[in-house]
Amino acid sequence: MMRRLTTFIAAILAASSLSATAGDMVSGQYEYMNHCASCHGTSGVGDGPIAGILTVDVPDLTVLAKNNGGDFPFLDTLMAIDGRTGVRGHGSNMPVWGDSFAREAAQQAGDYGAEMIARGRLLSLVEYLASIQEF
Predict the structure, then answer these.
(1) Are the C-beta atoms of residues 97 and 81 closer than 8 Å to each other?
(2) Helices 2-19, 97-131: inter-axial angle, 10-degree rounding
(3) CA distances from 103 to 62, 100, 107 (A)
(4) Vertex 26, ends 99 and 49: CA angle to 5°?
(5) 94, 80 in Cβ contact below 8 A?
(6) CA-based angle 91:65:43, to the nearest 5?
(7) Cα 18 to chain centroid, rounded
(8) Using CA of residue 110, residue 27, residue 82, residue 1, what is the dihedral sign?
(9) What span, in angstroms and rounded, lies between the C-alpha atoms of 30 and 22?
(10) How far apart are CA 73 and CA 24, in angstroms?
(11) What is the mean pLDDT of the chain?
(12) Cα 41 to the chain's mean position, in Å?
């Protein structure tokens, strides 16, 4: 168990260092700006440049905690962004970022390593979202 946890933590740190290539942006912010801001806006309020052409309302990501009784819904947010778990009946409005991140890393890290890198990127993104909450 301890070895698996150590491996998981090492993979998260590796993923964080791989994606933190944009100057002084932290990895979660970097992931957000590159994968989420086009819909959710740079500040997370749902006013991204393509939000107006979507057929659904883009949620304000800064009020997830406020809308959840003051607690940031970490796991629900992680699962929504990952997109590979849960029932996604008739498709979904969110891209499946977990698959996308894993595919990007697969050639360099193999299947297991790619999954760890994908999870690290997802975790850093959710941590960033937790940091921009309005209370």
Answers:
(1) yes
(2) 80
(3) 29, 5, 8
(4) 65
(5) yes
(6) 75
(7) 15
(8) positive
(9) 7
(10) 27
(11) 81
(12) 14
Whole-model pTM: value is 0.76
Tokens of 84: 């590979």
Reduce the secondary structure of 23-77 to three states and give it as a string.
Answer: CCCCHHHHHHHHHCHHHHCCCCCCCCCCHHHCCCCCCCHHHCCHHHCCCCCHHHH
Name the residue type at position 84. R
The count of domains in the chain is 1
pLDDT confidence bin for 7, thresholds 50/70/90: very low
Query: What is the domain range of residue 19?
Result: 2-131
pLDDT band at 24 (very low <50, low <70, confident <90, very high): low
Cβ neighbours for 132, distance < 8 A, ≥ 6 positions apart:
43, 44, 61, 62
The pLDDT of residue 10 is: 46
Going from the C-alpha of 3 to that of each of 6, 7, 8, 9, the distances in angstroms are: 5, 6, 9, 10
Q: Counting every residue, how long is the chain?
A: 135
Q: Are 46 and 59 in contact (CB under 8 A)?
A: yes
